[in-house]
């Protein structure tokens, strides 16, 4: 409404004669109605982000994350990670680029390495790689764990469907993340998310201008903040190739 009033003041100012009051009133009402309609759907930022993701073949980003691993009593552990993610064939590569796990790498492709997750640590421990079976991990954790290719931007359509099916309405707020205004949607109703711990509430924040994701926070059922992630340097359709998801890549340490 503030923007409408500023334009209305210009119209009223007697620059070239009298402005009919009815025209001013009609203009103000139309502007207000348009603003109200645009903000009527609380899921609009999430739907916009899901549509952006639906048109993308691959992307890269940096993630800064503070996370408790399994229990609310655990300490928060920081991580800064480079992520490469391709839709088809489904592949994810992650590299930890800051301490305490600098040099750790994770690689997963649905059509390579028998569909198993490849992981190794940095430094001396990086001489040995381990593999994990996503299906066995899912069964063991029992908390909605999904394989790495099912998370990130490409999982947003499931989130939209989930909140629609459950009839969830978000609490909306505005935060400053990465020095930009972000619209945040918090959902308090038990949706399944792929984490090692049980999630009681989740909050997704998107850049108000670009519509891209800039933050994700997860709480345990008792209200403890379990994860606080910020996303930056997002590049959509980065042109990733098979080499980006190959252990023989000379830039990788597998």
How would you explain this protein's 3D organization?
Helices cover 23% and strands 31% of the residues. The N terminus is likely disordered. The protein has five helices and eleven strands, in the order H-H-H-E-E-E-E-E-E-H-H-E-E-E-E-E. 20% of the residues are buried. It has one domain: outer membrane lipoprotein receptor (LolB), chain A, CATH 2.50.20. The chain has an eleven-stranded antiparallel beta sheet. The chain is globular, with a radius of gyration of 23 Å. With 254 residues, the chain is of the alpha+beta class. Helix 1 runs antiparallel to helix 2. Strand 5 and strand 6 form a beta hairpin. Keywords: Signal. It comes from Banduia mediterranea.
Helix and strand arrangement:
Layout: H1 2-12, H2 21-38, H3 44-54, E1 58-67, E2 77-86, E3 91-96, E4 105-109, E5 117-120, E6 129-132, H4 134-141, H5 156-166, E7 171-177, E8 180-187, E9 201-207, E10 213-219, E11 225-236
Antiparallel strand pairs: 1-2, 1-11, 2-3, 3-4, 4-5, 5-6, 7-8, 8-9, 9-10, 10-11
Helix pairs in contact: 1-2
């Amino acid at each position: 409404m503030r923007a409408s009033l500023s334009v209305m003041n210009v119209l009223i100012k007697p620059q070239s004669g009298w402005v009919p009051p009815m025209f001013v009133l009609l203009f103000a009402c139309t502007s207000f109605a348009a603003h109200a309609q645009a903000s009527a759907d609380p899921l609009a930022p999430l739907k916009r982000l899901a549509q952006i993701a639906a048109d993308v073949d691959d992307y890269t980003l940096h993630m800064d994350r503070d996370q408790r691993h399994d229990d609310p009593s655990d300490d928060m552990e920081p991580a800064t990670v480079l992520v490469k993610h391709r839709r088809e064939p489904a592949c994810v590569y992650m590299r930890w680029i800051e301490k305490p796990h600098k040099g750790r790498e994770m690689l997963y492709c649905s059509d390579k390495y028998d569909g198993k997750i490849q992981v190794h640590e940095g430094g001396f421990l990086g001489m040995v790689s381990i593999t994990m079976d996503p299906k066995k991990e899912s069964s063991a954790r029992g908390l909605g764990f999904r394989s790495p290719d099912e998370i990130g931007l490409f999982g947003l359509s499931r989130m939209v469907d989930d909140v629609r099916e459950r009839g969830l309405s978000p609490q909306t707020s505005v935060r400053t993340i990465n020095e930009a205004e972000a619209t945040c949607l918090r959902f308090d109703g038990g949706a399944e998310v792929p984490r090692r711990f049980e999630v009681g509430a989740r909050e997704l924040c998107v850049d108000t201008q670009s519509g891209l994701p800039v933050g994700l926070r997860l709480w345990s059922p008792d209200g403890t903040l379990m994860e606080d992630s910020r996303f930056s340097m997002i590049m959509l359709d980065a042109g990733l190739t098979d080499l980006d998801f190959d252990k023989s890549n000379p830039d990788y340490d597998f």
